[in-house]
Amino acid sequence: MSSAIDQLTESFARFPGIGPRQAKRFVYHLLQQDPAVLANLSQQILKLRKEINRCGRCYRFFSPTENYQEQCDFCRDTSRDAAQLMVVARDTDLDAMHKSHAYDGYYFVLGGLLSLTERHPDPSLRGVQLLARVQADVAAGSLKEIILALSANTEGDHTAEYVESLVSPLTESGQLKLSHLGRGLSTGTELEYSDSATIKSALKNRS
Predict the structure, then answer these.
(1) Fewer CB atoms near the end CB (10 Å): N or C, the chain?
(2) Domain 67-204: which topology?
(3) What pLDDT digit, counting tens, does each position of 89-107 carry?
(4) Average per-residue pLDDT in the chain?
């Protein structure tokens, strides 16, 4: 039977970008903390599921209020440009784009990237939901352009091809423009790690 140290190490190692050695360092760091610190951390983790919702329109995580439980503040903001919809892979990518102050349209969080080895998209990838949103917004006459803000790597390119195939009837008929982030993001770059100047340049030079 594995020890509590091994079990927690395995849990931390499942986090994105965390390997076994770093995961074990986390565990030993926690063991050196005061019990009150650990108790507080446990409560904060439990509060995530209780106090954070996923927006029913763009699928980003947000803190709901008493009056607004289903949609986030971005989707409720009528001052944003409804003609543009930016598709990002994850919430962290949305955060990076928002902090750049370079974009004032709406967002859609796809839920990840499509691996080259996958024959079919993972169920967590929200292609069906994206298509439904796009079709409804185009039919309403509001949406004119989709901007694919995906990482500049093979998985990002593969995911872009997948999204392009989904909306191809709308783009081929001229009802919708589809563009990609342009120069500024070098090959292999993860969007969430790009600085604001790089993101602004990539958005300005989209094609």
Answers:
(1) N
(2) Dna Topoisomerase Vi A Subunit; Chain: A, domain 2 (3.40.1360)
(3) 999 999 999 998 889 999 9
(4) 89
142 CB burial (10 A radius; 0-12, 13-18, 19+): middle
Domain layout of the chain by residue ranges: 4-51, 67-204
Tell me the C-alpha distance between 52 and 30, whole Å: 25
Nearest to 6 by CA among 21, 19, 24, 33: 24
* Tokens at 48, concatenated: 């995530």
- For residue 21 the two structure tokens come to 């050695």
Amino acid at 164: E
161-179 confidence digits (pLDDT tens):
999 999 999 999 999 999 9
**C-alpha–C-alpha distance, residues 93 and 102, integer Å:** 13
**H helix runs in the chain, sequence order:** 4-13, 20-31, 35-51, 73-76, 91-100, 127-139, 154-172, 196-204
Q: Provide the greatest CA pair distance for the chain.
A: 63
Positive/negative CA dihedral, 85, 90, 93, 97 = positive
Cα–Cα distance between 116 and 138 in angstroms, integer?
A: 30
The CA distances from residue 46 to 31, 34, 40, 53, in Å, are 20, 19, 10, 13
In the block, which residue shows the tokens 């008929």? Answer: 173
Q: Are 89 and 111 in contact (CB under 8 A)?
A: yes
